[in-house]
């Protein structure tokens, strides 16, 4: 059954030839977009939905989250707001809480977080392991994640965990585990591997070993890089041909040029930057240099406990010098590109755009234009969400 949407006050498409259409219409057929254009030219369809002048965007593609966890770190956050700095060690606190949770509890927590993300307009979602940090626990996280989200990333190399009696573990021996039995255990459930290349986590050499092993196992690569300092993560991501390097708070001109000259997506995480009081990632500089930028929530209990992409996009406009069209593109097409899902095998648009042939993932705002995401920050602007043509969030009337 086909469905015609009219009364779209502003439609953002990510079609470079026609990024914004005023007074638009759209036809969805069989879960994909069949027609896009101005209302005056719209064809007929089996059903008709009139949106009363509201704005429509592609559904958010959140390409970086850590949703498989138990516990909370609000005390750590409160201390940070009182002047403490963020350090990687807090990952161990969440690892302890996550290991102690039953499968059912962890699956329920994950399910709730996915529902929250969808309620906020997210229609395509990545999440990572990384709070298990043992063969068994990482495999459990990957298995649960594979049932709940679209893309799963293996992040056994998140932190070197403590031993059973709280004793330090040799980092290189832990990397052997990450590259060997742990990788083998998670392999059936994951498409990506990631590494936290940073002081207090993994050195560039250790990170390279992890990425090489993952690549040899057929996984795509991602890097947490340059979050706390110039960690070498950007250089490594470019050298290894990773799909994305995420955080990028501390970059110099050479890093920016390297990203601009590569296929590596620079993923900025505005909510994380606020929550850790980090220097904001230089999204404007990256865009001006020609790099591809994605925006993601980085939802996790340590550095960014929100899955609100509306908030991330509003912040990118308010604080990072992005235009609303750039920010929406980065949080939709950019995220899809970071996951290598922006086009399908047939080379047609697949995820993250409102173009003919793309999956009908649609986000309707209770506002006439997308700029309201920054103009009315914090307001509940998500009005309706469609995933592959099926309405998954209906307006509260
Ligand atoms: N930086 C590394 N990992 C997460 C934070 C994890 C945590 O502190 O629990 C991030 O992306 O910010
Ligand atoms: Zn992260």
From TrEMBL:
N-terminal signal peptide: none
Pfam family, one: Amidohydro_1
Gene3D superfamilies registered for this protein in UniProt: Metal-dependent hydrolases, Urease, subunit C, domain 1
Residues binding Fe(3+), per UniProt: 64, 66, 224, 298
List of residues binding 4-imidazolone-5-propanoate: 73, 131, 158, 227, 303
Catalysed reactions listed for this entry: 4-imidazolone-5-propanoate + H2O = N-formimidoyl-L-glutamate
Positions contributing to N-formimidoyl-L-glutamate binding: 131, 300, 302
InterPro entries on file: Amidohydro-rel (IPR006680), HutI (IPR005920), Metal-dep_hydrolase_composite (IPR011059), Metal_Hydrolase (IPR032466)
Boundaries of every Amidohydrolase-related domain copy: 56-367
The protein's name: Imidazolonepropionase
Organism: Mobilicoccus caccae
Name of the coding gene: hutI
């Amino acid at each position: 059954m086909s469905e015609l949407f009219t009364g779209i006050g502003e439609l953002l498409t990510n079609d470079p030839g026609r990024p914004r259409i005023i007074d638009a219409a759209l036809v969805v057929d069989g879960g994909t977009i069949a027609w896009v254009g101005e209302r005056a030219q719209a064809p007929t369809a089996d059903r008709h939905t009139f949106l009363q002048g509201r704005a429509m965007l592609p559904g958010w593609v959140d390409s970086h989250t850590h949703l498989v966890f138990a516990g909370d770190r609000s005390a750590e956050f409160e201390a940070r707001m009182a002047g403490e700095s963020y350090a990687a060690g807090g990952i161990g606190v969440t690892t302890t809480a996550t290991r102690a949770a039953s499968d059912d509890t962890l699956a329920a927590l994950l399910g709730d977080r996915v529902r929250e993300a969808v309620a906020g307009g997210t229609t395509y979602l990545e999440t990572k392991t990384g709070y298990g940090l043992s063969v068994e626990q990482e495999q459990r996280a990957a298995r649960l994640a594979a049932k709940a989200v679209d893309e799963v990333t293996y992040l056994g190399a998140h932190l070197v965990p403590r031993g059973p009696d709280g004793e330090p573990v040799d980092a290189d021996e832990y990397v052997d585990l990450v590259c060997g039995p742990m990788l083998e255990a998670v392999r059936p459930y994951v498409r990506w591997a990631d590494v936290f290349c940073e002081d207090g986590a993994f050195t560039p050499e250790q990170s390279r070993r992890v990425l090489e092993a993952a690549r040899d196992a057929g996984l795509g690569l991602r890097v947490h890089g340059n979050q706390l300092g110039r960690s070498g993560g950007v250089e490594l991501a470019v050298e290894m041909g990773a799909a994305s390097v995420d955080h990028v708070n501390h970059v110099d001109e050479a890093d920016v040029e390297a990203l601009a000259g590569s296929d590596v997506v620079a993923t900025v995480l505005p909510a994380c930057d606020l929550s850790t009081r980090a220097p904001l990632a230089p999204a404007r500089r990256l865009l001006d240099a020609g790099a591809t930028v994605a925006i993601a929530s980085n939802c996790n209990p340590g550095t960014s406990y929100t899955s609100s992409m509306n908030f991330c996009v509003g912040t990118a406009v308010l604080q990072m010098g992005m235009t609303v069209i750039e920010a929406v593109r980065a949080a939709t097409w950019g995220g899809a590109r970071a996951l290598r899902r922006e086009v399908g095998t047939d080379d047609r648009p697949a995820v993250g755009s409102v173009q003919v042939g793309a999956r009908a993932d649609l986000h309707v705002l209770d506002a006439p234009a997308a700029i309201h995401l920054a103009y009315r920050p914090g307001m509940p602007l998500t009005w309706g969400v469609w995933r592959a043509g099926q309405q998954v969030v209906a307006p509260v009337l």
